[in-house]
Design goal:
- The protein is built from 4 helices and 5 strands; from the N terminus they run βαβαβαβαβ.
- It is α/β, with parallel strands linked by helices.
- Strands 1-2-3-4-5 form a 5-stranded parallel β-sheet.
- It is globular, with a radius of gyration of 16 Å.
- It starts with 10 loop residues before the first strand and ends in a 12-residue tail after the last strand.
């Protein structure tokens, strides 16, 4: 909500082009077609967030986590997302995403990563983000009905 009014997110997957000028033109085109939220697949250059701030576009920033190997294997260590030995690597990427974009008003929320299964590392990442930024939503499409997503 904003000013006690519900905002409908009209989202589009989008990643910045090679330069600011092309990205600006593409973002203007997306906005003219009714999109108000962009969901990048990976970390974007700093100027991308500046453009979204200036244009009034919302961003769901995504951590650089993509570990689809054995994503269905929920045994401890069966997938990288459920391997406690990799927690430091996951948290470095989550913190990097957060500290990169936290001061941008365009960032409406955060995504824990893409196609990576679920498990201990994603639970810890969700908890850390919710403590660091309780006002913004955190989503994770591979949460698979578990508690570590605000969807």
């Amino acid at each position: 909500t904003r000013f006690d009014k519900e905002i409908k997110l009209v989202k589009t997957r989008y990643n910045a082009a090679a330069d600011r000028k092309i990205t600006l033109a593409e973002l203007k085109n997306l906005k003219s077609k009714g999109s108000n939220t962009v969901c990048p697949d990976y970390p974007q250059p700093g100027w991308f967030y500046d453009l979204c701030d200036e244009m009034g576009l919302m961003v769901v920033d995504q951590a650089a986590i993509n570990a689809p190997d054995r994503k269905e294997d929920r045994r401890i260590g069966g997938t990288p997302s459920n391997d406690p030995a990799l927690l430091g690597e996951y948290m470095d990427r989550i913190r990097g995403m957060y500290f990169r974009s936290r001061n941008h008003p365009s960032v409406a929320g955060f995504a824990l990563g893409s196609d990576s299964g679920n498990g201990y590392n994603m639970y810890k990442a969700y908890q850390w983000l919710k403590e660091a930024e309780p006002q913004r939503f955190v989503i994770y499409l591979d949460a698979d009905g578990e508690w570590n997503t605000d969807l």
